[in-house]
Amino acid sequence: MNNLKKQNNSGFTILFAVLVSTLILTIGASVINIALKQLTLSGSARDSQFAFYAANTGIECALYWDFVGVDGVSIPVFATSSDTVSAIQSNISDIHSSVKCSEKFIIDGDNLSNVEHDCDIDIFNDTGWCIDDSSTDSATTSFRIDPIADGVEYCVDVNVSKYLDGDGRTRTAIDSRGYNTCDGDDNRRVERGLRITF
């Protein structure tokens, strides 16, 4: 009879050990799952911050060059209407060699013979810049800085729109879209945008 009691107790011990092991594994898996989600969230916050910094860089750069111009405003960098495109075209080499954002020129490339006038096409394979002057009283200059600086992956697309308001005054709207990575196929790509009007 004592032998029978010992056999029953040993079965209970194995069952108890399996239950405790299962419980510990479940708790461990839950902790790992929570840790992985926290890593993903912190990575997303970091990527969002980088995209915001890129957008801010684009806004600051466009503001600076809009106020300063190439040689103190007599050579504009951004078109205000179809009339100013010819002035920009005649000074394109000066703009190309002197207008920089961060460490990069806003006109990248060697084909400076024509300013592209259709911003719907892929401007970024050639010079990274175009002017949409389809309206006589407004124009939008678009450029991309890809990447913003050597050693980083961030890039920014900037649109500088100039138009006449109801009182005939020139107004400016700058839209800047920053990205944490320039790779458009990256699943973790984050876009942040800023807009300023004056």
Task: Write out key terms for the chains shown.
single chain, 198 residues, alpha+beta, five-stranded antiparallel β-sheet, two-stranded antiparallel sheet, 42% helix
- Number of separate domains: 1
Beginning-to-end CA distance, first to last residue: 96 Å
Strand order of the largest sheet: 3-4-5-6-7
Task: Tally the beta strands.
Answer: 7
Tally of separate helices: 3
Radius of gyration (Å): 29 Å
Q: Level of helix content?
A: 40-55%
Mean pLDDT: 77
Uncertain residue ranges: none
Proportion of strand residues: 15-25%
SSE string = HHHEEEEEEE
Characterize the biggest β-sheet. Answer: 5 strands, antiparallel
Task: Please tell me what the overall shape is.
Answer: elongated
Kindly name the structural category: alpha+beta
Q: What's the short version?
A:
This protein is 42% helix and 22% strand. With 198 residues, it is α+β, with helices and mostly antiparallel strands.
